[in-house]
Amino acid sequence: MKRAAAILVLLAASGVLVFASGTKEGAGAKVGGSVSVLAVWGGGELDIFNSMVKPFSDATGIKVEFEGTRDLDAVLTTRVAAGNPPDIGALPGPGKMAEFARQGKMIDLSGVLDMAAMKKNYAQGWMDLGSVDGKLVGVFAKASLKGLVWYDPKNLAAAGVSVPPKTFNDLMSSSQAIAAKGTTPWSVGVESGAASGWAGTDWLEVIFLRMYGPDKYRQWYEGKLAWTSPEVKAAWQTWGRIVADPKMTYGGTQYELSTNFGSAFTPLFQNPPQAYYFLQATFIQSFIQKQFPDLKPVDDFNFFSFPPIDPKYGKGVEIAGDLVGMFKNTPQAATFIKYITTSDAQDFWVKAADGISPNRAVPIADYPDALSKNAAQILTSADIAVFDASDNMPSKMNAAFWSAILSYLANPDQLDSILAGLDKVRADAYSGS
């Protein structure tokens, strides 16, 4: 109850607690009623969300009605088009957020949040990512650092491999050395229900960023750089050195396509190991620890940033995050959106090793282990930071990108036709932008 009381005082002091009539009340007032939330969170993520919500509900009397779906884009688009959106919705990315905002479907949060506090606690870059045409319509509940290569330190040491590799060529050399001994170096899985393929886009994005830098990266997701361009094709071919070579990935094509992104790390921790490297964002730490609770961070599993390809862009980082917006301006929704931006709320994700907080008020000391502290420091010290490219693309382009990942893994020799097909979608997807 102490945490609930603290939240109640915090929200009341911010002038957020209101009754249905809209009148502001002092500490001790409860809002009551309910707020609907639509998001992708499930499994361990949903457990953390529920833990975060409990003190909020205790403090405010607001019942949080959660609906989870992995097909967030389609469900949210259908609900918004039908005039039946949730009060609060997680968003598939800045690109989709911009579409909704320009349709007039989202609430301007500058009239809801304490903007002085937001500017104090959030870097301007996070505010910009949540803004459309100068209006703040989305806020980040948590963030992930992408482009991380996960490994078991003991297994790599036994294989005679030292980490981290200084360059991509060093990483490939170590991969080839492992493969030469008869074990596949990489484990890759891109299955995710209706969203299957997205995990492969992360590979292309981190490779492209390290090859060509942030300006070309922006041209790519803005639709100004053709998919058939030499740059984009080269990024796919570079990825193909791993995923299109059956000696390089555990289980080959069938495993890549049928294995869920949230369990594809499993071969790394088998005895003997069936793979040594796995690429995924920081959020995967909670998945690893849930499946293998006896493993200790750093000692039994660790990560390094995907190594440089062009040294100029070696320290660039790709980020993603859970972007949340309001579709209905109710007292309950306003109270919830205020809460989810606070360090109190974001501490739940941080302490569970399930995200990096964009709120600067969350201290590094609250991160539960050396891995999560390291990720937070990498994110805050990066000289180049970009947001997930596919999440910045229009919905049609994003969906086609996911599908192209599946097509390429199944038939890597069809790359030219796959990229030509993406350019056809590009011509239509950006026509209104």
Walk me through what this model shows.
- This protein is α/β, with parallel strands linked by helices.
- The protein contains 18 helices and eleven strands.
- The chain has helices at residues 2-13, 43-60, 72-81, 94-102, 115-121, 124-129, 153-158, 168-180, 198-221, 230-243, 252-258, 284-291, 331-340, 343-351, 370-381, 389-392, 395-410, 415-429; strands at 34-39, 63-68, 88-91, 131-132, 135-136, 139-145, 148-151, 278-280, 302-305, 316-326, 384-387.
- Strands 1, 2, 3, 6, 10 and 11 form a six-stranded mixed sheet that branches.
Briefly characterize the structure.
46% of the residues lie in helices and 12% in strands. With 433 residues, the chain is α/β, with parallel strands linked by helices.
List keywords for this structure.
433 residues; alpha/beta; six-stranded mixed beta sheet; 18 helices; 11 strands
Helix and strand topology:
Blueprint: H1 2-13, E1 34-39, H2 43-60, E2 63-68, H3 72-81, E3 88-91, H4 94-102, H5 115-121, H6 124-129, E4 131-132, E5 135-136, E6 139-145, E7 148-151, H7 153-158, H8 168-180, H9 198-221, H10 230-243, H11 252-258, E8 278-280, H12 284-291, E9 302-305, E10 316-326, H13 331-340, H14 343-351, H15 370-381, E11 384-387, H16 389-392, H17 395-410, H18 415-429
